[in-house]
UniProtKB/TrEMBL annotation:
This is 2-nitropropane dioxygenase. GO terms for molecular function: dioxygenase activity; nitronate monooxygenase activity. SUPFAM superfamilies: Inosine monophosphate dehydrogenase (IMPDH) (SSF51412). InterPro entries: Aldolase_TIM (IPR013785), NMO (IPR004136). It comes from Emcibacter nanhaiensis. Gene3D superfamilies: Aldolase class I. It comes from the Bacteria.
Length: 332
């Protein structure tokens, strides 16, 4: 354990935790129960604000604080129309870390959070953006590869870490995407990461409120089942999302083709056609996570889903990862 503690000392100090393991912010999944469980187990839970209103976020943070006295963070989407008010809510609760996701933060957001006494974590999908974010004042970065679940970029974790880790030393860098075992955590730490972020492994935590059907889909799934959404026509952009193949995935392809045919026949204008495709997945994640419709909903999952074998307490998952990492380092 000595070597492991030495390698992620910077990440632990930054997060204020026993282990430098962040919980990935997964909409509908990363709420008070899972977030508090991860923090209580020595990791760092992160509330997924998603499309919550300021009032909803206020209640979620308050409820999480009732369930843990350990540090946790809040993930805010940069394009949320009420970003400013959401920042005010997190600062009012004295949340120590705010994760800004979904694009380059708007001017002033980073400084506002820092002035309010919280640390800012941002995602860096390329070295040039990592450097830009550091100049903007971020306190830490997450490097997330395309193996991750949900909305993803085009580059794999193994490439991103080689591009970014050797060149960024000013702030702690956490690695995410495709991490399912402790040996991989150890390898990234040896490459210079301060810690890691995992989402998929924690979906089947006992404390996760995800529907039983959703958890079963993860346990049955393997890496090849976690595929990215396909775009049929560049005029109709599709934001890449990684999820388990299901009936909705197939239906989405048919929907795109139908909409394209209607556009070409003059039945829809370009904007109407684009919106029809964009709105296909509206509410689809909630349908799967909360309602348990794993055929008609979106079962967002990373490629590490094949390493999710059972429902376990969050504490047990974290301890397993830490033991694997420590054992791997002890062999050397």
């Amino acid at each position: 354990m000595d070597r492991l503690n030495e390698l992620w000392a910077r990440g632990k100090e930054f997060l204020g935790t026993e282990y430098a393991i962040l919980g990935g912010a997964m909409s509908w999944v990363s709420e008070r129960h899972l977030v508090s469980a991860l923090s209580n187990a020595g990791g760092f839970g992160v509330i997924a604000c998603g499309s919550m209103t300021p009032d909803l976020l206020d209640r979620e943070i308050a409820a999480t604080k009732e369930m843990t006295d350990k540090p946790f963070g809040v993930n805010l989407i940069t394009m949320h129309p009420q970003l400013d008010e959401l920042i005010d809510v997190t600062l009012a609760h004295k949340v120590g870390h705010v994760v800004l996701a979904g694009g380059i933060p708007p001017g002033g957001a980073i400084q506002k959070i820092k002035d309010g006494g919280a640390k800012v974590i941002c995602f860096a999908p390329a070295l040039v953006l990592a450097k830009k974010l550091i100049r903007s004042g971020v306190d830490a970065l997450v490097v997330e590869g395309s193996e991750a679940g949900g909305h993803i970029g085009p580059v794999s974790t193994s490439i991103l870490v080689q591009e970014i880790l050797p060149h960024i030393t000013e702030v702690p860098v956490f690695v995410a995407g495709g991490i399912g075992r402790g040996e991989t955590i150890a390898a990234y730490l040896e490459m210079g990461a301060a810690g890691v972020q995992l989402g998929t492994r924690f979906v089947c935590a006992e404390e996760s409120i995800a529907h039983e059907n959703f958890k079963k889909a993860f346990i049955k799934g393997n890496a090849r089942d976690a595929v990215t959404s396909v775009q049929l026509d560049p005029r109709f952009p599709v934001i890449p999302v990684r999820a388990l193949k299901n009936e909705a995935t197939e239906d989405f392809m048919k929907t795109q083709q139908d909409v394209i045919n209607k556009y070409q026949a003059g039945e829809l204008d370009l904007k109407e056609a684009q919106l029809a495709i964009e709105h296909y997945w509206a509410g689809a994640l909630k349908k799967a996570v909360i309602d348990g419709d794993v055929q008609g909903g979106s079962v967002m999952a990373g490629q590490s889903v094949g390493m999710v074998k059972s429902i376990q307490p969050a504490k047990e998952i974290i301890e397993e990862l830490v033991e694997q990492a420590a054992a791997h380092l002890a062999i050397k």
